[in-house]
Amino acid sequence: MNDHLDLTVYERSLIDNGVRIAMKENDKSSVGSTDELIKNYHQDSNLGLFELRSKIKTHDLGKYEDLSLNDLKLIANCLTLWDDFTYQKSLEETEKHKVEYYQNCELQMSALREKLSAIELHTMYSGLL
User: Fold this and answer.
1) Closest among 124, 118, 89 to 106, alpha carbons compared
2) At what angle are helices 36-57 and 9-31 packed, to 10 degrees?
3) Is 109 helix (H, G, I), strand (E, B) or coil?
4) Residues 27, 25, 75, 114: what is their CA dihedral angle, to the nearest 10 degrees?
5) What does the alpha-carbon distance between residue 67 and residue 73 come to, in Å, rounded to a whole number?
6) In angstroms, how far is the first alpha carbon of the chain from the final one?
7) Which of 30, 82, 93, 127 is the Cys-Cys partner for 42 at CB 3.0 to 4.6 Å?
8) pLDDT tens-digit profile of 22-68?
9) Rounded-to-integer distance, Cα 2 and Cα 28, Å
């Protein structure tokens, strides 16, 4: 197994979409709160998401070590948000080609999750050898 993070442009796009959805959800939660601590938490969280988004979009992301376990878990959470979003969209859509698009996204998402899971395992256990 090589130690390079081979994410396709499409996979990076899926992750980016998930991160953007997470950022929007943070904004909604922040705006709806009157507690300054909660607002600061969501702003800090969005800063971390922005940094992750920048890291994923960079062209020289090459080794597993470029992503921490926290990054990988955050990506997984963002993909879950994106998955929920596409599922809701597929329920709302009535045009056949759009439903097929969301079904294809779901298949790609599943493959990406498997890849990220393997990377996470490699990252966790590579320091133990």
Assistant:
1) 89
2) 170
3) helix
4) -170
5) 10
6) 15
7) 30
8) 999 888 888 877 888 888 888 888 888 998 888 887 766 555 456 78
9) 40
